[in-house]
Amino acid sequence: MRIEDGVSGSRKHLVFAYYVSGHGFGHATRVVEVVRHLIVAGHDVHVVTGAPDFVFTTEIQSPRLFLRKVLVLDCGAVQADALTVDPVASLEKYSETVVARASILATEVEWLNSIKADLVITDVVAVACRAAADAGIRSVCVGNFSWDFIYSEYVATAGYHHKSIISQIAEDYSHCELLIRLPGYSPMPAFRDVIDVPLVVRRLHKSRKEVRSEMGISEDVKLVILNFGGQPAGWKLKEEYLPPGWLCLVCGAFEHELPPNFIKLPKDAYTPDVMAASDCMIGKIGYGTVSEALAYKLPVVYIRRDNFNEEPFLRNMLEYYRGGVEMIKRDLFEGHWRPYLERATSLKPNYDGGVNGGQVAARILQDAADGKNYASDKLSGAQRLRDGYQLQRVHEGDTNIPEWYVRAEFELGLRTGSHSVDNNGSSLCESC
Description:
alpha/beta, eight-stranded mixed sheet, six-stranded parallel sheet, 16 helices, globular, disordered N terminus
């Protein structure tokens, strides 16, 4: 299936409802790029999100963008600290949404009908797929992971009595007509029909030279970004953490006074420009960080996180393209940064795939809303799951964890979608 380059205007004005996971900023920042292309094509986009307005309005100033703040649809993963997910708390939090499920569905169906949505898009809010089906509206998912996969490990290790959550989430996703799958993906077997697209990254506004000039930083200064939200209380950055002559740009909330070689960035600083002006980054692995680091060839010094099930697939992609150096937690907090920074700046990230995934995805979404059929079957959600994607016991008497999740750690998820995109940005449809 060929997808033409660009997002030319549809023959009619379309209305999109775009549900965004509230877990972290990565979902919102990639949604921005897809939404921007839809709006440029002349359509209205209603974004349902818990992210701050500036994430969207910094990049998009248009009366066709509508922001609706809703926090209860997707609780994501509950973190015990900046580097650790609490599996039990995450499952219990999601169970709260299950209790309110009927009310949530009724509210969303009424809202979708009130805005006359032509298509529901979700990244990666499962209940939005079911709400769309109940409202008689097609839905498409855009993402690199799904919550049934993330929660499957939590159920296996900490909450077997919550195993029905996995079945419910997978069933919700199965109502979705199509998955637009992003690079660095984890297994997502609830989706039958898949199109791989290139990296979805935000565009640059300024050059490296412009950013450094505005900040008063010369080209010969080594610059590292510290992008590490949720840091421990009382952790203080020290001047000796950096090699001589280096500067560090700090994202996030550090309440204490910074040393002279650390510079606090404004809350609404445009991260892609700052990344492109830097020499490396220290932070946690998420889709937004990895995709934009690869796109702008910025080496990443990363710290592993416990129970973040999407991370191995993104880490594998980062390392495959020679873009990552792992730092142990103790060295991060004790300030032994120098060997990692020196190693990172010796790397030559070699990602050469497409970075126009936002444009390609927007064209697919426009065509789907305009009536194009990407689905290979007309089966219901329950039938789809039974047809080769059914939940099954790993061992007799064990919890209901699908066998395909147990095998997931051996899958690399390396594909970037660029193999199915020609020089003109056209994409080919592939199945799982």
